[in-house]
């Protein structure tokens, strides 16, 4: 028999007759892989199958009734919060992350909590039953209501779901399963797409809560076609800072909640633990004393304010080109702030190396950190210690002006709760100010104001 082969882009699923270095469709380099083209049967048009069994009458939106889906809680604080209060029946979630980040651990912990009331089927194509049960022992899970199955053939997986009829299905991982009707190897675009749509067809009508685990490529993107993200209800990315115990779970897409939230976890000897008090976790140095070059700020991650510690070191340089290093914050943003400080308050930075870093290994893009970066640099440069009970939160522009940042009320509230006594920010409205009972607000108009108040 003669096979027809095509070259399929592993990123976007584009099919080309010939190999090319660059995908003509999405522009990705080196992504075309040779795959055997499936002979489509003329009799059975398989493509017309829909993902779900939904079919309805045509009704007016005004006459349709909203269904309030009850939430199924996992009782893992951060996980529930991130999902928007819990899981919904029939929800299909894709959990993606680098190897070793803790996807299987998180899923086993979720399975343990859900199995208190629901029947869970955990299918693994990566580990043996012995390995999974070893992990369960480590996590202290007994799992009376958790069924394990090691399988990679999607048809056998479908059979076992039909036999066990679980309420929750976990598939670890989508890159290891294959569809026997497709000749390409597991993990390729065609396989990942077909296996996922098989799962959608199986689980949606039955209302099974499904978790599909997936790998990410070295660029941090989901390995497999983008179409996967359209097929599922929720896409979660599990991320970490290098050599850090902290794990961040970010929703990339969420049909039943917001994508602005993040979940914070800590990997411990007995599994992942929710980090609910993020503020106290990120600040590293003791908050008892004033320090040179340290400024606190409240940055937003999603809608949650997190206490962040900006550290700056300004020291005379020995090189013709002074060094500018930024960790956790955007370097270009910092360069702009340094230039503004030189220009508007005559801070002598031209012969100094400057290092700016966010404590705790986080990476943040919040403009509210601008003022804290400026304060920390002034403090280190002029050798003035910044008081331990002050926070700095405002955006600084190239003209040296200080501007208000979004959700300032929430940030001020959190600062007050954390025991700060002084907040440096742009002018706020009366109502925002009224709430401040235990804290003084120092309203700044520009960098000159900041320099005057600090020195
Ligand atoms: P794992 O869940 O296997 O990661 P993934 O499925 O994303 O590849 O967990 C990976 C790491 O977590 C592993 O290197 C060991 C560590 N770990 C702990 O530190 N504590 C624990 O309790 C467990 C179960 C794992
Ligand atoms: Mg795993």
Short description:
By secondary structure, the protein is of the alpha/beta class.
Remind me, CATH topology of the largest domain? Answer: Rossmann fold
The CATH superfamily of the largest domain is P-loop containing nucleotide triphosphate hydrolases
**How would you classify the helix and strand content by structural class?**
alpha/beta
Report helical residue fraction: 25-40%
Low-confidence stretches: 43-48
Number of DSSP helical runs: 12
What's the overall average pLDDT, rounded? 86
Shape: globular
Q: Give the C-level CATH assignment of the largest domain.
A: Alpha Beta
**In whole angstroms, how far apart are the ends?**
84 Å
Physical arrangement of strands within the biggest beta sheet: 6-5-7-8-4-9-10-11-12
Largest pleated sheet: 9 strands, mixed
What are the main properties of this structure?
alpha/beta, globular, 455 residues, 26% helix, Ribosomal Protein S5, domain 2, 23 strands, 12 helices, four-stranded mixed β-sheet, binds thymidine-5'-diphosphate, binds magnesium ion
SSE topology:
Layout lengths: L4 E5 L5 E2 L15 E5 L40 H7 L8 E6 L5 H12 L5 E5 L4 H11 L6 E5 L3 H11 L3 E5 L16 H18 L2 E7 L11 H5 L2 E7 L5 E9 L8 E6 L2 E4 L3 H5 L8 E2 L1 E8 L2 E13 L7 E4 L3 H15 L6 E7 L10 H13 L3 E2 L3 E3 L2 E2 L5 E2 L4 H10 L4 E5 L3 H5 L5 E5 L2 H8 L1
Helix pairs in contact: 8-9, 9-12
This protein binds thymidine-5'-diphosphate and magnesium ion.
Magnesium ion binds next to α2.
């Amino acid at each position: 028999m003669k096979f027809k082969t095509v070259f399929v882009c592993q990123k976007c699923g584009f099919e080309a007759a010939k190999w090319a270095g660059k995908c003509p469709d999405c522009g990705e380099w080196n992504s075309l892989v040779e795959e055997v083209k499936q002979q489509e049967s003329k009799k059975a048009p398989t493509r017309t199958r829909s993902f779900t069994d939904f079919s309805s009458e045509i009704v007016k939106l005004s006459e349709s009734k909203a269904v309030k889906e009850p939430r199924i809680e996992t009782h893992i604080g951060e996980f529930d919060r991130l999902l928007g209060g819990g899981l919904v029946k029939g929800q299909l979630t894709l959990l993606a992350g680098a190897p070793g980040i803790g996807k299987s651990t998180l899923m086993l912990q979720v399975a343990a909590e859900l199995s208190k009331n629901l029947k869970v089927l955990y299918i693994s194509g990566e580990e043996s039953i012995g390995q999974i049960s070893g992990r369960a022992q480590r996590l202290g899970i007994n799992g009376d209501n958790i069924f394990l199955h090691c399988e990679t053939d999607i048809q056998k997986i479908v059979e076992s779901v039909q036999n066990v009829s679980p309420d929750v299905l976990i598939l670890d991982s989508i890159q290891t399963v294959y569809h026997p009707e497709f000749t390409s190897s597991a993990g390729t675009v065609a396989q990942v797409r077909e296996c996922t749509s098989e799962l959608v067809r199986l689980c949606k009508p039955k209302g099974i809560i499904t978790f599909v685990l997936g790998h990410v490529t070295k660029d941090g993107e989901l390995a497999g076609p983008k179409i996967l993200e359209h097929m599922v209800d929720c896409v979660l990315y599990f991320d970490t800072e290098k050599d850090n115990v902290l794990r961040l779970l970010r929703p990339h897409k969420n049909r039943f909640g917001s994508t602005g939230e993040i979940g914070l976890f800590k990997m411990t000897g007995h599994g992942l633990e929710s980090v609910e008090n993020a503020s106290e976790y990120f600040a590293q140095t003791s908050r008892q004393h004033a320090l040179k070059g340290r400024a606190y700020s409240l940055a937003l991650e999603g809608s949650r304010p997190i206490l962040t510690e900006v550290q700056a070191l300004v020291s005379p340089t020995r090189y013709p080109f002074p060094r500018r290093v930024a960790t956790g914050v955007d370097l270009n943003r910092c360069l702009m702030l340094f230039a503004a400080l030189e220009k508007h308050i005559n801070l002598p930075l031209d012969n100094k190396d400057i290092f700016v870093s966010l404590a705790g290994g986080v990476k943040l893009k919040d403009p509210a950190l601008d003022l804290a970066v400026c304060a920390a640099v002034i403090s280190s440069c002029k050798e003035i210690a910044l008081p331990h009970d002050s926070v700095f939160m405002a955006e600084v522009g190239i003209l040296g002006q200080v501007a208000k940042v979004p959700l300032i009320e929430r940030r001020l509230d959190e600062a007050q709760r954390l025991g700060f006594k002084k907040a440096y920010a742009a002018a706020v409205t009366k109502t925002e100010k009224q709430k401040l009972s235990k804290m003084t607000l120092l309203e700044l108009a520009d960098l000159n104001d900041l320099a005057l108040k600090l020195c």
